[in-house]
Specification:
Layout lengths: L9 E3 L10 H18 L8 H10 L4 E7 L6 H20 L8 E7 L4 H14 L4 E3 L4 H14 L3 E2 L16 E2 L6 H15 L3 E7 L2 H16 L3 E8 L19 E4 L6 H12 L5 E5 L20 E4 L11 H10 L17 H21 L6 H13 E4 L10 E4 L4 E3 L3 E6 L2 E7 L19
Parallel strand pairs: 2-3, 2-4, 4-5, 5-6, 7-8, 7-9, 9-10, 10-11
Antiparallel strand pairs: 1-12, 11-15, 12-13, 13-14, 15-16
Helix pairs in contact: 1-2, 3-10, 4-5, 6-7, 10-11
């Protein structure tokens, strides 16, 4: 078996030490072996003897995972693909032994992409649905509004958000972000490439809430550290539907326009940007957030040709052609162009939704290494401490985006980033950062908080 298909799970601070053979360890190895067979296409895992053995050892009581999903509101496009990815990950897990030999059950609740409702969803999932954990939240203002209630209820809360709110220390010990990198790491990794290749005088356009402020603050710091300067910081309401009045605020001496927009108006944003600048544009570097769920080849987007975009996970299959990524894409149901296999016009949010797959696997590894069985104080504490002991996640079926380091004090993972150029109406990866490129110093240490 080659390194691309092998999935060896989480790396802990004691990984190099002697290992005991335990039931959980056998189940974990069984699931990994079964997963590799599925990639090779040589067996039906759902009916295989190893899967049946795992179920018998673990029992039939499911691990119930509350899924806080943006089915409505400005995050609905992301929410639909997040839910599709979560269900695909759970289905594959259940074909390969579940979590610690127990089936996985996803319990969804719509938070409306609203912070107040988000806290109510945490309450409902924990108290009414009696879930073991809550996971999946994307929009940072919803995470920030929900996390305090998760802390009060002492229920583990695994977010797939990117915001630096977890790593900054502003939340609590029950909140983790193990499956997707944060904005500070992303911009720290990419700012040197932008400065060296596009220009040093930058105007920024970003959404007017916490996620946008992370970009404003951390990209500004990264640019200035490289000798660059910020020409303008333009905050735009995430519910805005027209942007023509914002573009005149960009100074004439701007060398690089940095954009990161979200919400239902992203396609309009890009079209109006093209109408404003025409051929006299600055160099342009954006986050794929501005175009998630949007076909790059859509009418009116030819203006993007020759511009650059950040991606956490390449939309097009050729950008990360590994066995693990091909397996992930097949299970979620996206084609080589990053659209639904059932509807080529339905473009995925692939640069974010992979985090749902990887986070569910991080939860699996935490449960199996901690011995978690139910939401008792002792089991929850053991799970939190097991997660904090992790030092990384190996690339493979569980983590198709790539190897990640994990900082247990920050509750945050660190991974590679991709910079892609728009060429011929598609995205071509032109640069891949290292994990080290995105590392930063922090005083955050959640392990000092009580449980």
């Amino acid at each position: 078996m080659n390194d691309e298909t092998r999935d060896t799970g989480a790396v802990t601070k004691n990984s190099a030490e002697g290992r005991k053979v335990t039931r959980r360890g056998v189940l974990k190895a069984t699931a990994a072996t079964a997963g590799a067979v599925a990639v090779a296409g040589t067996a039906s895992i759902a009916t295989s003897p190893v899967a049946r053995t795992a179920w018998a050892a673990g029992g039939d009581a499911p691990i119930r995972v509350g899924f806080q999903v943006h089915r409505t509101g400005i995050g609905a496009t992301y929410g639909r693909w997040y839910e599709r990815t979560a269900n695909a990950a759970a289905a594959y897990m259940n074909e390969t032994g579940g979590i610690a030999g127990r089936p996985v059950e996803i319990v969804p609740e719509d938070d409306g992409t609203d912070p107040k409702r988000g806290a109510e969803v945490i309450e409902k999932l924990a108290s009414q649905h009696k879930v073991d954990f809550v996971y999946g939240t994307l929009f940072s203002h919803v995470v920030i509004g929900s996390a305090p209630r998760a802390g009060e209820l002492k229920i583990p809360y695994f977010v797939v958000s990117e915001g630096t709110h977890v790593a900054s220390g502003m939340l609590n010990r029950y909140v983790f972000q193990p499956g997707i990198t944060d904005v500070r790491a992303q911009v720290t990794a990419m700012a040197p490439w932008v400065m060296d290749n596009l220009g040093k005088r930058v105007a920024m356009m970003f959404p007017d809430y916490a996620f946008g402020y992370d970009h404003r603050d951390h990209f500004t710091a990264a640019v200035e550290a490289r000798g660059g300067s910020i020409a303008a910081k333009i905050a735009i309401p995430p519910t805005e539907s027209s942007y023509t009045r914002y573009f005149p605020q960009i100074p004439a001496d701007t060398e690089v326009l940095y954009h990161v927009m979200v919400g239902p108006g992203v396609l309009t944003f890009v079209k109006e940007m093209g109408e404003h600048f025409g051929s006299q544009r600055p160099r342009i570097f954006g986050f794929i957030d501005s175009l998630e769920g949007v076909d790059i080849a859509s009418p009116g987007l030819s203006f993007l040709e020759g511009t650059y975009l950040w991606e956490a996970m390449p939309r097009y299959a050729g950008g990360l052609d590994t066995a693990a990524n091909r397996h992930y894409r097949d299970r979620v149901g996206i084609n080589d162009d990053g659209a639904s296999v059932d509807d080529p016009k339905d473009v995925s949010t692939n640069s974010h939704m992979f985090g749902c797959w990887e986070t569910l696997y991080a939860i699996k590894q935490g449960v199996e290494q901690s011995g978690y069985r139910s939401r008792t104080p002792g089991d929850v504490a053991a799970l939190v401490e097991a997660m904090e002991s992790f030092r990384g996640f190996n690339e493979g079926i569980a983590h198709p985006q790539g190897y990640k380091e994990f900082d247990g004090a920050l509750h945050q993972c660190f991974g590679r980033q991709f910079i892609s150029e728009v060429r011929g109406g598609k995205l071509d990866v032109v640069h891949t950062t290292s994990i080290e490129d995105g590392k930063y110093e922090s005083d955050t240490d959640y392990t000092k908080q009580s449980l």
